[in-house]
Amino acid sequence: MIEPTVYELSSPGRHGPMPPKLDVPEAPLPDGYLRDAEALPLPELSELDVVRHFVRLSQKNMAIDTTFYPLGSCTMKYNPKVNEKAAAMPGFANIHPLQDPDLVQGALQLLYELQAYLAEISGFDAVTLQPAAGAHGELTGVLIMRKYHQDRGDAKRTKILVPDSAHGTNPATTTMAGLQVVELPSDSRGNVDLEALKANLDDTVVGLMLTNPNTLGLFEEHVLEVTRLVHEAGGLVYGDGANLNAIVGVAKPAHLGFDVMHFNLHKTFSTPHGGGGPGAGPVGVVAKLADFLPGPIVALEKDERSGPFLLGPLAEEEHQHEHNGYRLVWYMPPKSIGRVKAFHGNFGVLVRAYTYIRMHGAEGLRRVAENAVLNANYLKARLQQEGSYPVAYGERTCMHEFVAQGIIAGAPDVHTMDIAKRLIDYGFHPPTVYFPLIVKEALMIEPTETESKATLDAFADTLIKIAQEARENPQLLKEAPHHAPVRRLDEVRAAREPILCRL
Ligand SMILES: *Cc1c(COP(=O)(O)O)cnc(C)c1O
């Protein structure tokens, strides 16, 4: 096969199908539409050249549809194709956000029910679907917490406590909201250090941002005590819900003492992600924060006097809203922090998540968490049994992910990055590397529930084989990947200053 090494494939005189000869009277174009150069500098290619070019390019990406993708914290689970079918239904795909709500009651019902499902899953009292991603949900949540304190006239609260295992978006969000980050250390079992928490709790604390299970893949053993202590100090507890896949259908974050939390629909609820979006980061809150939610959100209005209900399941008769005086409306909460997104969020993503929830039901969602945790523990046990890679806090049962370390006895020069790059040669997407920051040479592995035992075994076998290669021929790893379209990149520059074409 000829694999062109240059990007420029143009060849003078080549072209795709030409339109048929004109069989209607010629109508001259208005002057404003006429080009003033003789010809545009467009590549000259046949249709087949173009098809091959783009299909070839598309295959250079790694994707969950082609490859095991154990990218820790990112929950790269299979995206069921039925979600796509639902989102492509003309009534959803062709809708306009400015349509009169009375003409799009079906779409509003979907949004309203999605708000209610997320509330049921998490135990919260009200939900906004507006935020476009997890980090955006975090900012929304922190702005709600800030406004809650301001509204009570408590202006001296300016600090947010963030454990040192947190995702980088937590301190970034805090700073963007104009608040100060106070970092909390972890204890010897990977939990928040309770003494450090107590020492930092006072009347200047807005709240704590906590990920549970945390980014070490560990369930916070003292979560009830942590949330109680923060509440006793007058603070609120923000839940980073990115790891909900480990507990969905099993435990409700609101019951653990969280006051506000974002969901990553593109993680737990299987909408496609990677490459920058679009995603969705709905935010759930306890009742006392509901008035601060960004709006508008979908509410149910029984009649004009009843005022809107934020949530609650739709009864059968309410489904026939037109006949019973029930109506779904856009509602702006009275003390809202305002809008955080144009229109109503990433609607297509919301349809996909709704479909996923309906396809699974409560029992199915619980099995998602159980199998995600089972798969992670199986993979962890296989690596521990072999002894090639240490596992941080490996004595504990992990949740949906665990953090191994790219530290191979007998191969002191080989690092996590080399192991990750070598995995690409074997056709696997690498795990998350060098995060969380508190684990040296971190290799954060999240298999998700959608992988078979055969895939997990193939991955474990490959990691074990790579450890052997590291001892016998470390240079092989240092120069990996050998079989990828590109070798080692300056990853930061490739993302920030991409060169998309060669001119
Ligand atoms: C993914 C993730 C986020 C951010 O979510 P985005 O949707 O990528 O903005 C925050 N915290 C944790 C723990 C995550 O894994």
Helices and strands in order, then pairings?
Elements lengths: L46 H13 L21 H7 L2 H4 L11 H18 L3 E3 L5 H18 L7 E5 L5 H8 L3 E5 L9 H7 L4 E7 L11 H10 L3 E6 L18 E4 L19 E3 L11 E5 L6 E2 L6 H4 L1 H4 L2 E5 L15 H40 L15 E4 L10 H10 L6 E2 L8 E4 L7 H20 L1 H5 L12 H6 L7
Parallel strand pairs: 2-3, 2-4, 4-5, 5-6
Antiparallel strand pairs: 1-7, 6-7, 8-9, 8-10, 11-13, 12-13
The protein binds pyridoxal-5'-phosphate.
Word description of this protein:
It is globular, with a radius of gyration of 26 Å. It has a seven-stranded mixed beta sheet, sandwiched between helices. Strands 9-8-10 form a three-stranded antiparallel beta sheet, with helices on one face. With 503 residues, the protein is an alpha/beta fold. Among the domains are: 6-59, no CATH class; 367-496, Aspartate Aminotransferase, domain 1 (Alpha-Beta Complex). The protein has helices at 47-59, 81-87, 90-93, 105-122, 134-151, 169-176, 194-200, 223-232, 316-319, 321-324, 347-386, 416-425, 453-472, 474-478, 491-496, and strands at residues 126-128, 159-163, 180-184, 205-211, 236-241, 260-263, 283-285, 297-301, 308-309, 327-331, 402-405, 432-433, 442-445. The protein has 15 helices and 13 strands. The longest helix is centred in the last third of the chain and has 40 residues, at 347-386. The chain binds pyridoxal-5'-phosphate (PLP). Pyridoxal-5'-phosphate binds at residues 73-74, 133-135, 167, 169, 211, 215, 240, 242, 264, 279, 281.
